[in-house]
Hints:
Number of strands: 4
CATH class: Alpha Beta
Oligomer: single chain
Structural class: alpha+beta
Mean pLDDT: 96
CATH architecture: 2-Layer Sandwich
Strand order of the largest sheet: 1-2-3-4
Amino acid sequence: MAEYTVILDRLELPMRLGIYPHEAEPQRIRINVEMLVSYACPPSADTIEEVLDYDFVRDGIHALARTHVFALQETLVEAIASLCFADHRVRQVRVRSMKLDVYPDARVGCEIVRTR
Length: 116
């Protein structure tokens, strides 16, 4: 068994996320994802077919941003965690979201860790 942590770091995208009237328009959100992925053995042929292709996570997050309005960051990070678990090799996921422009002096966010 071989385990790797696959990381999608500092993905920034506009998203409708929030409960306040001023959050009705898309705002900048930063997403970080870490997935603990298990393989039967280490990759030997140096090809993408042997490992998790993280494009599905990035593409899935972009799709969520285009098609969903989230009231809570907690709901957003749960949706992203579920997306990651679509690949059966993902054993654990850590997802963090950050609203970058809510306050002039701070960012606000939410992070979860989920294990299969």
